[in-house]
Design goal:
The chain has about 350 residues and is of the alpha+beta class. It has 2 domains: about 80 residues, no CATH class; about 230 residues, no CATH class. It contains 14 helices and 4 strands. A hairpin with a 6-residue loop joins strand 2 and strand 3. Helix 4 crosses helix 5 and helix 5 packs across helix 6. The protein starts with a helix and ends in a 10-residue tail after the last helix.
Length: about 350
């Protein structure tokens, strides 16, 4: 009820939109295409939550949404939904060209540590100078703090990537395998996230950044489960498709992504006696997205160790499927700004009459 009122005021709506666009202009100093260079992590966040890697489109969406990330994500998802689906391309972590790799759980992992481009170890002080603000860290993502190229190991050993940090523990039988994840395209074939780990991990990959961070944080505080970041790596995946004429494999580009692996011990994981493993991934380079996703994936995998015990919110895939959907959450809360006076008047009438006043919001 009440939505017809919005449609009836088309003139006011158009005027409000023009005022908002005028207020949100950037004084001609930057265009949408510049944001990928000046605010790359913001663009990466929109790309990650949208599940679409197209920096120019994400930049334009941010500008059109006046910096509102949720609205920008909505614009990108709607745009992508209208595009034809030509083909699919599959890859795995073994095919990543690693540009940055750290292993907080291991001092000297096989393949070495590579800081790459990072502000993690720089002082968090506001800098008003016009010079570099990254503490001297290389911006190209290919060089570590000691000047060693991340690709050196791969070149010397003929590998596509640096070895997985957890492989040694896996060979010793110290890792719990957890539920198997099958690759599913949730945008084309939705699956029950309460049962299928692959669908759940895709939901995590596109989850709202703030919700991911907050719920992952609360899952660690106040519990006896210990989460350790085993490995974090940032790199690029080549995209290959089958040539329509020759049938050969053709590289059409690459996609940047961040992948994290978290190990979990304690809590429910004690029932297994081994380390639980969670995997998180995201497009772009907003690393806390991947870390948060890995923590939540580990929590939900650990919940299978004691299925008879009711899961906490951070272990409940059905709950997380709702809480992490930033588009659904933002859309519902923002719809409260639309006219509800018909429904509310009805509520007031029922209260005044002393009758049932349950709200039946339409």
């Amino acid at each position: 009820m009440g939505y017809e009122t919005v449609r009836a005021d088309a003139g006011a709506i158009a005027t409000a939109a023009r005022l908002a666009q005028r207020k949100g202009s950037i004084d001609g100093s930057a265009s949408g295409l510049d944001l990928a260079g000046t605010l790359p992590l913001l663009v990466d966040q929109v790309a990650g939550e949208a599940g679409v890697w197209e920096p120019a489109v994400c930049s334009r969406a941010i500008e059109q949404a006046r910096g509102d990330v949720a609205r920008a994500v909505s614009l990108v998802r709607a745009w992508a939904a209208m595009l034809p689906r030509r083909t699919t391309s599959r890859t795995d972590i073994g095919q990543m060209r690693t540009l940055r790799r750290i292993t907080p759980a291991f001092r000297e992992p096989e393949g070495g540590q590579y800081l790459g481009a990072s502000l993690d170890y720089a002082q968090r002080l506001l800098d008003f100078d016009d010079g570099p603000v990254n503490g001297g860290v290389s911006s190209n993502g290919t060089v570590s703090a000691n000047g060693t190229a991340a690709s050196t190991y791969a070149a010397a050993h003929g590998l596509a990537q640096i070895p997985r940090a957890l492989d040694g523990l896996d060979r010793r039988g110290l890792l719990s395998p957890g539920p198997v994840a099958q690759a599913i395209d949730g945008s084309r074939a939705p699956a029950d996230a309460g049962r299928e780990r692959g669908a759940f991990e895709q939901l995590l990959a596109r989850g709202e950044t703030g919700a991911l961070t907050a719920i992952a944080y609360t899952s660690i505080r106040g519990t006896d489960a210990a989460a350790t970041l085993a490995e974090l790596r940032l790199g690029e995946f080549d995209v290959y498709i089958e040539h329509p004429d020759t049938g050969g494999r053709v590289r059409i580009g690459s996609v940047p992504a961040t992948v994290a692996e978290v190990v979990l011990y304690g809590g429910r994981q004690k029932a297994d006696g081994r380390l639980g493993v969670g995997v998180g991934a995201t497009l772009g380079s907003v690393e806390r997205r991947a870390i948060s996703a890995a923590v939540l994936d580990a929590n939900c995998a650990a919940a299978t160790c004691e299925p008879a015990v009711a899961p906490s919110p951070s272990e409940d895939q059905e709950f997380l499927g709702i809480a992490l959907d930033g588009q659904e959450a933002a859309g519902f809360l923002e719809h409260l700004k639309l006219p509800h006076h018909v429904t509310f008047t009805s509520v007031l009438d029922r209260i005044a009459a002393g009758g049932d006043h349950d709200d039946e919001d339409a």
